[in-house]
Amino acid sequence: MDILGDGFADALRLLVTGDEDAWSITALTLRISLTATVVAVCLGLPLGAAIALGRFPGRRVVLAMANTGLGLPPVVVGLFVTVLLWRSGPLGSLGLLYTPTAMIVAQAAIATPIVTALVVAALVQVDPDFLVQMRGLGAGRVRAFLALLDEARLPLLAAAMAGFGAVISEVGAAQMVGGNVAGETRVLTTAAVLATSRGQFALAIAFGLILLLIAFVVNLTLVLAQQRAPERDGVR
Amino acid sequence: MRRARSLLLAAALVLVPSGCGDDDEPNRKLILATTTSTQDSGLLDDLLPAFTRDTGWEVTTLAVGSGQAIELGRRGEADVLLVHSPAAEEEFVAEGATGRRLLVMHNDFLIVGPADDPAEIDALSPSEALTAIAEGEVPFVSRGDESGTHAKEKTIWAKAGITPEGSWYSSTGQGMGATLQVAAERNAYTVTDRATFLSQRDTVDLVELGAGGPELLNIYHVIEMTERAGNRVQTDGAAAFADWIVSATAQDLIGRFGVDAYGEALFTPDAGRDEAELAA
C-alpha cells in the first residue's frame, strides 16, 4: 500500500515541479495521440461513410476487415511499421524510425480501423429514410450528407474518442517504433514501463495516474457534450 | 454544424504546433544499441549528455538485450554497440561487418536468491551453485532473452553439465529489472549483473549468494559498425562514440558512477587494459 500512496504523492510532486520531464512527456503523449487520432478520423470518416452509405462490390468484405481491425494487436502494427521504416526497409531513406512521426504513423494505423468501424455503426443507426427525406426537402447531396453527420454527431464523436483511447493507452507499438528515446519519443506508457523495469514503482504509478487523468478529462468532455446536446436541440 | 466546425477548429489547433520542432539535423544523430543494464542502472543518463556536449553527436539509445543489439548491428540498423556478451561478440566480429571492438569496462555477475538460501549455495562456486539449485529443483528464473546476462547463465549451466528444464526453471523473456522482480516474487534464484541488482536492491527481496570469481566476470565492449553492415551506417558517429567512451573523460565518469548513490562504483573502467588481466 505504501507504494500506491507514494505513487499518488509522486504524481502530485511531478505535476507540480515538472520533475522527470513529466510535463514534456505528457505534452508529447498528447501531441502524438491527438495527431494520430485526427489522421485516423480524416481517413476513417470518409471510409466509414462510404461503407455505410455506398453500394459497391466487396462492401461486406471491407466492413469485415474494418471490424477485424478493431482487434488489431498494436504489437503487430508496431512490427510492420518498424520493418517498413528500417534503414534497410523500403521506406528507410526517410529516416523516420525512432521519431514521433513513426509513432504517429503506427498509432494512426491502429486507430483508423477502430474509427472506421464505429463510424459505420454510427451512420447505419440513423433512420435509413433520413437521407431520402433531406433530399425530398430540397437539400443537395453535400448538404444532405452534412445534415446526416450532424444527426450522428455524438456516436461520431464517440468513434473519435475510442480511437484516441486506443492510441494513448498503447505501449507495444509506441515502444517498438519510437524506441523510448528520452526527450524525443518517450511517452507516458513507455516511461511507465521503463520506470517499472528500473524498480521505480512509485514513479511508474505516477505516470499511470497522469495517463488516467488525461483519459478522465477526455471522457468527461464527451459526457458533457452528450448531456448538453438535448438542451441545445430544445433551444433551437 | 456549429459543433462540427468547433471540432475541426480544435483539431487544427492540435495539429499546427505538432508540425514544428521536428527538424533536428538528422546526420548528427547516431543510433546506439546497448543492453538494458546500461540504461536500467542509469549509467547512460550520466554518459550521454557529456558525449553530446563533447562531440555534438546526439544519441538515440535502444536498450535491448545484447543478442538483439548485435542483430540490429548486423542489419545496419545501429551505428555502434555497447554490449557484454563476449562469445557472441567474437562470432559477430568474425563475420566482417564491424569496425573496432574495444574493451570499455567490467563489473561482475551475481547469483542472487532468497535470504534463507533453500539450495544452500552460499560459498559455492557458480557452477556448483547452479548444480545444487538444479538437483534440489529449487525455483530459478532465467531472462531467456539472449541478452549478455542470459548468455552468461547458459555458459555456467554448460560448465555444470546441466540442461536446465522442468517446472522449477522459468524464463521471463524480459529485461533484468523485470526478471529480478519475478525472481523476488517467486522466492527464486537468478543470475543478474551487479549494476542492475544494486540499483534495485531496495525494491527486490533478494540477496547475493555464492562465491564470485572469474567465471562471473561481466565485460563490456564497444563495437563500431561499418558500411559493410548497411550503407546508411553513420561510421563517423560510430567512431566518435568509440573514441569518446575509451577516452579519459568517459572512463573517469564510468569509474565514479554509482559511488554517491550506492557507496561503491558499479563499473570498473578498463580502456586500454589487456582483457586477459581482468580475471587476475
From TrEMBL, chain A:
It is a multi-pass membrane protein. Pfam families: BPD_transp_1. Keywords: Membrane, Transmembrane, Transmembrane helix, Transport. Residues 26-222 form the ABC transmembrane type-1 domain. It comes from the Bacteria. Coiled coil: none annotated. The chain crosses the membrane at residues 32-54, 61-86, 98-124, 145-168, 201-225. It is found in: Cell membrane; Membrane. Signal peptide: none annotated. Its main location: membrane. SUPFAM superfamilies: MetI-like. Belongs to the binding-protein-dependent transport system permease family. This is ABC transporter permease. It comes from Sporichthya brevicatena.
From TrEMBL, chain B:
Residues 25-248 form the PBP domain. Residues 1-21 form the signal peptide. Keywords: Signal. It comes from Sporichthya brevicatena. It comes from the Bacteria. PANTHER family: EXTRACELLULAR TUNGSTATE BINDING PROTEIN (PTHR37945:SF1). This is Substrate-binding domain-containing protein.
